[in-house]
């Protein structure tokens, strides 16, 4: 589907990203944070974007929100190309002011660190009220009622009193809930959660994930969850997109990616995740090496220096030619499952079944 | 805390309160300003400075009342108190008496007390308004330069560098001598004061501008600014609602410390003859006049000198206290 060059014209999906590229010119060279990413997402569904630190996950989310170009005048800009279609509108070529009006109302974002994402100077309530009044022409009292209602909805106890507290008076989990309330106050149709649980402890993580899932059911929004924690996507996502070195290496329905992963990097991620639903056999297997520099991405397949199977395909093709995203044959229920790997399909199936799966 | 529904239940409700404990002593959110105020109240030196500042402001505002009660009109001559031969006050200590609290001016016998009181008006008015001018220009340009960056920042920063390198005292003296007698609907001393305010304020803004710009540069990268953008906040909203509140503390501190500098500048300019025009009283002008008679009448120099000294010291102590109180790293 998406590897085909853009034919132009509005897509039928709610959100469609086509060949998104976000590059940052720096003194050291061009940082290719996102290099040709495409995906689509329907309302009411959740897409999980996974990958190591520095694989371009957060840059992607900020790119969709159009936040790379805001408030930059004459500074060296991020170079962005591609298309982002939200609800039939193309955002990349749209007037920045129009995109600004969409932010908050049509698409909203939950940030990673809830302490630094709330203004320390204003009460939590005042911030939610302001977020509401940016898009709704209502008086402060109505907006405040709405703020209290949302704080209640996200599970803040005594919302009518806590609404007047400052962010520092909230615990980490409460702050993240308040952050979610702020993002949801305008009923956005697209919610991007950028590592929503990274700063929280495990029990609170579970509560926040439940909350996001419940709210999605209630509001029917499309959700993108960005994380490096496979446990989080396993909980939430319908579809999974695995990113490596600014590109998508595997994408497919969550069950498929978890039960029949195709890319060696996905195997590595699964191998380094502790599981409690199976008997533990050996030590966890980390992915060897470290993520590539986005200034100097390895030739060929970006994963080749770390891939244990890099020499399997003939002619050193992994080091010279970048693999394209190709559909995996006979993958499940018809929803596409794609992967970018030079390994022949039968080798991949064999390695997964014989070498990887038994160790997980 | 809810009121008891029935009086008969009052005792019971109270008992519940004591048991629960929480609603009776609810933890109260304190705004940064309240915390600063509590800290300031504990700092005795700063508090003294603040009280003196407050008194000076009251003196300046109620100058006519105070002079009416305790002195003589500031421009009234009392030649009977002056020795016609040496033209110095007849009485010892510069003519200090119950009638003339701070003595009389050599030569014409004007009441020094009244002139010091009226001089406070000029000093404080010029110092305050010049600080306001500097803070407004400096904040707006600094925040805009820091937030937008690029060529806007380059232009503003170079202008600031230029102004900081400018020989402002010489420029003001030269400017004052060419300013016409009536301007902007003002005349006489009014023109001079307006010029002083405009010029001192104009040369003061780069100091504020630099601080604001530097702070803005670091604040604009904060995640909550990004979060505000992600919720659809506009440019002006981010500048004045997200960034400005964080700048209020450094600006306040700088403004309170800029006022005494302005008092000194105004006194220096008046001393050099570039301040308000006689007969309007000003401290610098009195000092300048005292230079020729200080051997015979030192009190006439000491009193306006003390007025300047006390004012500057009080503002500095108060400003330091405000800075400590607003410092979030300071101990509570």
TrEMBL record, chain A:
<dbReference type="GO" id="GO:0015833">
    <property type="term" value="P:peptide transport"/>
</dbReference>
<dbReference type="GO" id="GO:0016887">
    <property type="term" value="F:ATP hydrolysis activity"/>
</dbReference>
<feature type="compositionally biased region" description="Basic and acidic residues">
    <location>
        <begin position="319"/>
        <end position="336"/>
    </location>
</feature>
<dbReference type="GO" id="GO:0005886">
    <property type="term" value="C:plasma membrane"/>
</dbReference>
<keyword id="KW-1003">Cell membrane</keyword>
<keyword id="KW-0547">Nucleotide-binding</keyword>
<dbReference type="InterPro" id="IPR003439">
    <property type="entry name" value="ABC_transporter-like_ATP-bd"/>
</dbReference>
<dbReference type="Pfam" id="PF08352">
    <property type="entry name" value="oligo_HPY"/>
</dbReference>
<dbReference type="InterPro" id="IPR013563">
    <property type="entry name" value="Oligopep_ABC_C"/>
</dbReference>
<protein>
    <submittedName>
        <fullName>Dipeptide/oligopeptide/nickel ABC transporter ATP-binding protein</fullName>
    </submittedName>
</protein>
<dbReference type="InterPro" id="IPR027417">
    <property type="entry name" value="P-loop_NTPase"/>
</dbReference>
<dbReference type="InterPro" id="IPR003593">
    <property type="entry name" value="AAA+_ATPase"/>
</dbReference>
<feature type="region of interest" description="Disordered">
    <location>
        <begin position="314"/>
        <end position="336"/>
    </location>
</feature>
<dbReference type="InterPro" id="IPR050388">
    <property type="entry name" value="ABC_Ni/Peptide_Import"/>
</dbReference>
<keyword id="KW-0067">ATP-binding</keyword>
<dbReference type="Pfam" id="PF00005">
    <property type="entry name" value="ABC_tran"/>
</dbReference>
<comment type="similarity">
    <text>Belongs to the ABC transporter superfamily.</text>
</comment>
<feature type="domain" description="ABC transporter">
    <location>
        <begin position="17"/>
        <end position="270"/>
    </location>
</feature>
<dbReference type="InterPro" id="IPR017871">
    <property type="entry name" value="ABC_transporter-like_CS"/>
</dbReference>
<dbReference type="GO" id="GO:0005524">
    <property type="term" value="F:ATP binding"/>
</dbReference>
<keyword id="KW-0472">Membrane</keyword>
<keyword id="KW-0813">Transport</keyword>
From TrEMBL, chain B:
<feature type="transmembrane region" description="Helical">
    <location>
        <begin position="299"/>
        <end position="318"/>
    </location>
</feature>
<feature type="transmembrane region" description="Helical">
    <location>
        <begin position="191"/>
        <end position="212"/>
    </location>
</feature>
<feature type="transmembrane region" description="Helical">
    <location>
        <begin position="124"/>
        <end position="148"/>
    </location>
</feature>
<dbReference type="Pfam" id="PF00528">
    <property type="entry name" value="BPD_transp_1"/>
</dbReference>
<dbReference type="InterPro" id="IPR025966">
    <property type="entry name" value="OppC_N"/>
</dbReference>
<keyword id="KW-0472">Membrane</keyword>
<feature type="transmembrane region" description="Helical">
    <location>
        <begin position="160"/>
        <end position="179"/>
    </location>
</feature>
<dbReference type="InterPro" id="IPR000515">
    <property type="entry name" value="MetI-like"/>
</dbReference>
<keyword id="KW-1003">Cell membrane</keyword>
<dbReference type="GO" id="GO:0055085">
    <property type="term" value="P:transmembrane transport"/>
</dbReference>
<protein>
    <submittedName>
        <fullName>Peptide ABC transporter permease</fullName>
    </submittedName>
</protein>
<dbReference type="Pfam" id="PF12911">
    <property type="entry name" value="OppC_N"/>
</dbReference>
<comment type="similarity">
    <text>Belongs to the binding-protein-dependent transport system permease family.</text>
</comment>
<dbReference type="GO" id="GO:0005886">
    <property type="term" value="C:plasma membrane"/>
</dbReference>
<keyword id="KW-0812">Transmembrane</keyword>
<dbReference type="InterPro" id="IPR035906">
    <property type="entry name" value="MetI-like_sf"/>
</dbReference>
<keyword id="KW-0813">Transport</keyword>
<keyword id="KW-1133">Transmembrane helix</keyword>
<feature type="transmembrane region" description="Helical">
    <location>
        <begin position="45"/>
        <end position="70"/>
    </location>
</feature>
<feature type="domain" description="ABC transmembrane type-1">
    <location>
        <begin position="120"/>
        <end position="319"/>
    </location>
</feature>
<dbReference type="InterPro" id="IPR050366">
    <property type="entry name" value="BP-dependent_transpt_permease"/>
</dbReference>
């Amino acid at each position: 589907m998406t590897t085909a060059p853009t034919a132009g014209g509005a897509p039928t999906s709610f959100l469609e990203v086509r060949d998104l590229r976000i590059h940052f010119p720096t003194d050291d060279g061009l940082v290719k944070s996102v290099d040709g990413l495409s995906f689509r997402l329907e309302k009411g569904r959740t897409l999980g974007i996974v990958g190591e630190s520095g694989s371009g996950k957060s840059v992607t989310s900020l790119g969709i929100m159009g936040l790379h170009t805001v408030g930059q005048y004459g500074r060296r800009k991020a170079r962005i190309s591609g298309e982002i279609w939200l609800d039939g509108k193309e955002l990349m070529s749209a007037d920045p002011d129009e995109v600004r009006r969409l932010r908050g109302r049509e698409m909203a974002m939950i940030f990673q660190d809830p302490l630094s994402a709330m203004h320390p100077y204003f009460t939590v309530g005042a911030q939610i009220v302001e977020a509401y009044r940016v898009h709704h022409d209502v008086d402060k009292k109505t907006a405040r009622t709405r703020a209290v209602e949302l704080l209640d909805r996200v599970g803040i106890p005594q919302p009518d009193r806590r609404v007047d507290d400052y962010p520092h008076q909230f615990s980490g989990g409460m702050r993240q809930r308040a952050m979610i309330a702020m993002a949801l106050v305008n009923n956005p149709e697209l919610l991007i959660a950028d590592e929503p649980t990274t700063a929280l402890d495990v029990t609170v993580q579970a509560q926040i994930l439940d909350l996001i899932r419940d709210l999605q059911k209630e509001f029917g929004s499309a959700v993108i969850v960005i994380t490096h924690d496979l446990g989080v996507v396993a909980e939430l996502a319908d579809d999974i997109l695995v990113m490596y070195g600014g590109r998508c290496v595997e994408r497919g329905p969550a069950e498929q990616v978890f039960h029949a992963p195709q890319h060696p990097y996905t195997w590595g991620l699964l191998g380094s995740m502790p599981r409690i639903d199976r008997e533990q056999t050996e030590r966890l297997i980390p992915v060897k090496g470290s993520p590539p520099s986005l200034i100097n991405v390895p030739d060929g397949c970006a994963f080749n220096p770390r891939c244990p199977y890099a020499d399997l395909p003939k002619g050193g093709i992994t080091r010279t030619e970048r693999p394209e995203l190709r559909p995996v044959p006979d993958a499940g229920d018809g929803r596409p499952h794609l992967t970018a790997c030079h390994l022949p399909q039968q080798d991949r199936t064999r390695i997964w079944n014989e070498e990887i799966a038994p160790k997980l | 805390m809810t009121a008891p529904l029935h009086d008969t239940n009052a005792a019971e409700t109270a008992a519940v309160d004591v048991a629960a404990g929480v609603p009776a002593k609810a933890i109260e959110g304190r705004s940064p300003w309240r915390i600063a105020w509590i800290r300031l109240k504990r700092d005795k030196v700063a508090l003294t400075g603040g009280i003196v500042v407050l008194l000076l402001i009251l003196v300046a505002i109620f100058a006519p009342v105070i002079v009416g009660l305790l002195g003589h009109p500031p421009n009234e001559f009392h030649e009977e108190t002056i020795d016609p031969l040496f033209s110095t006050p007849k009485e010892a200590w510069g003519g200090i008496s119950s009638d003339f609290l701070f003595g009389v001016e050599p030569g014409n016998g004007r009441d020094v007390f009244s002139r010091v009181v009226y001089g406070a008006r000029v000093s404080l008015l010029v110092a305050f308004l010049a600080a306001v001018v500097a803070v407004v220009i400096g904040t707006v340009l600094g925040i805009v330069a820091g937030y937008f960056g690029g060529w806007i920042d380059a232009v503003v920063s170079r202008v600031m560098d230029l102004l900081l390198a400018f020989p402002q005292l010489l420029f003001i003296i030269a400017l004052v001598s060419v300013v016409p007698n009536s301007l902007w609907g003002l005349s006489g001393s009014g023109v001079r004061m307006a010029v002083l305010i405009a010029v001192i304020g104009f040369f003061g803004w780069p100091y504020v501008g630099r601080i604001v710009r530097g702070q803005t540069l670091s604040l604009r990268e904060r995640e909550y600014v990004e979060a505000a953008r992600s919720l659809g906040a506009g440019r002006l909203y981010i500048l004045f609602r997200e960034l400005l509140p964080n700048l209020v503390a450094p600006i306040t501190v700088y403004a309170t410390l800029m006022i005494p500098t302005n008092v000194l500048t105004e006194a220096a300019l008046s001393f050099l003859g570039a301040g308000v025009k006689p007969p309007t009283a000003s401290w610098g002008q009195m000092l300048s006049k005292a230079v020729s008679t200080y051997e015979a009448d030192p009190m006439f120099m000491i009193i306006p000198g003390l007025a300047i000294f006390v004012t500057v010291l009080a503002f500095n102590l108060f400003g330091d206290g405000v800075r400590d109180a607003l410092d979030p790293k300071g101990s509570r």
